[in-house]
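Hey, I was hoping to borrow your eyes for a little while. I'm sending you its amino acid sequence along with the C-alpha cells. Take your time with it, there's no hurry, and the full record follows here.
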Amino acid sequence: MSSNLPAVDPHHFGHAHLDAADEVEHFGTTRSAFDFRYVAAAIRANMWLIAAIVAAALAIALVTTMLQTKRYAASSTIQINDTSGRILSSKDDAGQDPETATYDIDRFLKTQTDIIQSRGLALRVAQKLNLIGNPDLYAAQGLPAPPAGASPEALRDHAVGLLAGNLTVKLPRDSRIVTLRYESNDPSFSARIANGYAAEFIQANLQRKFDSSAYARNFLGEQLAEAKIKLEASERAVNSYAREAGIIRTGNGEIDSTGGKTSVDRGTSVTTSSLSQLNTAANEATARRIEAEGRWRAVSSGPLLSSTMVLQNPTIVTLLSDKARVEADLNQDRARHLADYPSIKAREAQLSSINQQLNQVANSVRNSVRNEYQSALGTERALQAQVNRLKGETMAEQDRSVQYNLLAREADTNRQLYEGLLERYKTLNAIAGVSLSNISIIDNAEVPKGPSSPNLFKNLLVGLIIGLGLAAMVVFFKDQFDDAIRVPEDIEAKLTLPLLGVVPQSQSGEPQDALLDPKSPISEAYNSLRGSLLYSTPDGLPQIMLVTSAQASEGKTTSSHAIASGFARMGKRVLLVDADLRRPSLHKRLELSNDKGLSTLLTSHDPLAGVVLKSNQDYLSLLVAGPIPPSPTELLSTARIEEILQEAASQFDIVVVDSPPILGLADAPLMAALVDGVVFVVEADRSRRGSLKAALRRLRAMRPILLGAVLTKFDPLKAGNRYSEYYGYDYYQYESEAEKR
C-alpha cells in the first residue's frame, strides 16, 4: 500500500466500490420529477405562508377595485358581407355568385376589422362628431381639458388616440357579425361613439368604392381619348394611301359585328368588281356559244328537214300538214282521173308551191341558228378579251393593296379598342355610386345601465390567480434553497443517498440512556439500522465502517456506539474507534481513561492490543482518541492510519470508526477513502443553508463507498405537516408488567 496517499484501491479490504448513483439504484430510487404527495406536503408545510400571500393579493385586488373609476361600455353590432350588390349590374357581374366566393372570407373579415381600428376611421369619427378639442371627449375619459395653446395637429392626434385606444373590435370565429365596443366614464358618450363608429365605417366603405370607381373612370377617359386619336389617324392613313394608289372601293364602310368582333367592311375595288362581273358574263357567253354551236352542228350536219329544230318550227309543221293533205287529195284525183285532168294539175301546182315554201322556211331556220352561233361566238371572244385585260389590272392592284390592307387592319384594331373602352366607360358611368353597401347595422348601441369596470369578482379572481401563482413560486424557491432534511423521503430526494434507518427523537432523558433499554424506540431503530447494514453492499456487511456527519451534534457518536453495541450483541468482535482527535467524546460517555488511544498509535509503532480497552459489554472493545495532538490532519494523512485499520481488521470482525464532522475539517474525507463503507448521519429538521450538500460534495470528492444515510432525532408528530410514510411513526410496544397482570 502507498505510504502517503489517502486514497485506496477500489477493492480495498475486499469490498466492491459503489458510487452515489449506484447506491441510489441499489438501495432505492429518487423522488419522481412531479410527486403529487410531495406537493401536497409542501402545501401543508407552508400553509400559513401561502394563505398570507393569497390574502395579500386579494386585499390588493379589493383595494384596487375600490380605487378604480367606474367605466361604461356600449356596443353596436354590424354585419359584414364579403361582396356587395349593385342597383345596376353589368354583364361582368352577371356570372358571379357572391355566396360561393368564400375562399378568402377570413382574410377579408380580418382586413375589415383592421380598417375599423385604423387611424383614418378614428379621424372620420372625430371630425363627424366634432370631438377634436372638445372638452366632452376629455371629460369622458377622465382627463383634463387640453391647454388653450395646443396646435390643431396635436389636438387631432390626441383625439384620434383616445378614440382608437378605447375601442375594442370583436369578430367571433365562423361569424360575420362584428361587435364594436367603446368604453368611457360617460355611458351616453360611449353609446354615441359606438354608433358613430358603425355609421362612419359604412360611409367610409361606400366612399372608398366611389373613389375607386372615379379613378377607373378617369383612367378610362384618358385611354379613350388616346384611342380616338389613334383611330382617326389610322383612318386618314387608309384613305390617303387609297387615293395615292388609285384604289377605289365600292363598299360604304359598314360595321360588321359578327363573331363577337367588330370590323369595318370596306367593300371591294372597282377593278376587282368589274373583273368579277366580266368573268361571269364571259362564262355565260361561253355557255351560250356552246349551246348555239350544238344547235348549228345538229342543223347543218344532216338533211334540211331531218333536223329537230326545223321540224319543231310551227310554219314547217303547218306546211307539212298542208302537204300531206294536198298529196292525199292528189292521189284520190289520180285514181279517178287522168294525168291531164285540171284538178290534178291544180293540185300538183299547189304541192309544188308547198314544197318550195318548206325549203325556204327550213333554210331560214338553219340560217337563224347559224347567225345565233356566230353572234354567241363573237360575244364570247369580246368578253374573254376584256377579262384578260382586267386580270392584269387586278394583279397590279393587288400588289398596291398590300400596304392598304396593313393600314386597314391597324384601323380596325384601333376601332375595336376604342369601342371596347367606350362601352366600359359608359358602363362605369352608369353604375358609379349606385353600389349597395355590404355592411349593415344589426344593433345600435344603447346607453349602458351599469358600469363595465371595475368588476369586483373578476379582479378578485385575478388577484386569487396571481396570489396562488406567487405563492407557488415562493414555495418552490423556498423548497429548492432549503436543504433541511425533515422527513425520511428527503434523504433520497435531496441527498441521493439510500436511507439506512430512522432514529426517533428521545422523548425522555438522553439517547444514551434510552439505548440501555433494549425495548425503547431508539434501541429498536438502531436494531433496524443494524439489519440494513448487514445487506448494505453486494458482499454483505462491511468490515470497516466510518460514521460521520456534516456538522457537530447530529448524533454521530451515539449512532457509532449503537451500531458497535448492536453487532457485539450478535456475538461479533467489534472495535469502536473514536477518530475525533479535536473534540473526543467517547471516553467521557463511557467514563474511560483517555491517556492512550488513537493518537498514541499514530505517533508510534505500538501494537493495537496495548491501547484497546475492554468495555462492560461482551465482544465490544474500544479505542479512544487519546491525547489531543497539535495537528490531527497531518497524523490522519500518513500511512500509519491504514496500518492501524488493517491491524484492527485482522483482529476484529467489525471496526466502527467515529470520525469528526466533515465541514471545515479534512479528517473525515481522508479516512472515508480508507474504509469499506461510510454511514452518513443527518439530524432531522436542522437548517443548514447548503452545508449538507457542501459536505457531501467534499466527501464524494474522495470517491468513498457511501453505504447510506441515517436520519436521527426524527419527530414524526412534528413532521406531520409534510407527507411522509413515517407520519404517525411509532414502534410496536412491549407488553408492560401491568398489562401482563
Observations:
- The chain is about 55% helix and 10% strand.
- The longest strand covers residues 72-80.
- The mean pLDDT is 78.
- The two ends are 63 Å apart (CA to CA).
